[in-house]
Please model this.
Amino acid sequence: MKPGICWQWALILPLAIAVLSAPGCKRAGTPAANTGVADQQINVGGSDFTVVRVDLKQADLRFFWRTADGRRLANFDGLQQFLHRSHQRLVFAANAGIFDPTFTPCGLHIEEGRQLVPLNTHPGAGNFYVQPNGVFFVDDRGAQVIDTAHFTATAAPIRLATQSGPLLVLGGKIDSAFDPNSNNRQIRSGVGVDGQRQVCFAISHQPVTFYAFAAIFRDQLNCANALYLDGAISSFYLHGTKTSDRPEDFAGILAVTQAE
Model:
């Protein structure tokens, strides 16, 4: 691997969550009791998506990468074991931004207010470096998605943050570089913030274009700003199951937890 390159993994993974099949069909969000997490399955243009909304007024959204002694949690199973030792359970999880072959996040990683990886403004190859890239973060005012160029202007204490690229939607506009007819189709995951200030996660169940995936956040989820997280290895943990039945390792994991 060349220095400065963060690879986008290219395997297409089978997905296990059943979804509605009629084009344009939605199911109302189903909340997990007292967790602030609601999920729904939608079908848009013949493609299926799982959508998870997280209400930060109720949900404890956290960020994980390594234990205090530097051991990488690696995947949802590792995170569950870690949480169990502190009498916590996993409600929802999604792999975070793109990482390099050493399983180090390619850009900014802040968890529990601690910056473990700095903001990355260097040029490079791969999806992470497609401009504009951006940052999803949670501070004292709630959640935001912002382009990297303006992130340094943020003054409030930041509790968690992940940097990735490209931005899917910025200021209500889909990236003009995205081609609706592109042959670049992958499983994709992303995160946005809707008009109610809820955090919206989405993952595709079939390979889709960047444009089609971005349109989900703008047109279906009412997210003026949304960030691509990762591609074919992406998975969600929800209702005790994963959206991929193939074991994969990640770097950062965004998760909602609850006391057992």
Q: What stands out?
A: The first helix runs from residue 76 to 85. The two ends are 42 Å apart (CA to CA). The chain has three helices and 18 strands.
